[in-house]
Design a protein that fits this description.
The chain is mostly helical. It contains two helices and no strands. The protein has a domain at about 20-60. The relative contact order is 0.06.
Amino acid sequence: MMQKILTFYKEVKQEALKITWPTKPEVITTTIMVFIFVLISSIFFLLVDKIISFGVEFILF
């Protein structure tokens, strides 16, 4: 049982060494891209919401 645990731990350690972490410029670039996408998405959904609410008010009133 103990041998299986040690084997598992060694395999996990080997897999963890294969991880490639992003560089600082990559993190900054992707973070900026996410903020831009969120901004564009929020503007899009704001416009869609306003158009739909205008249409519903036009139909009902």
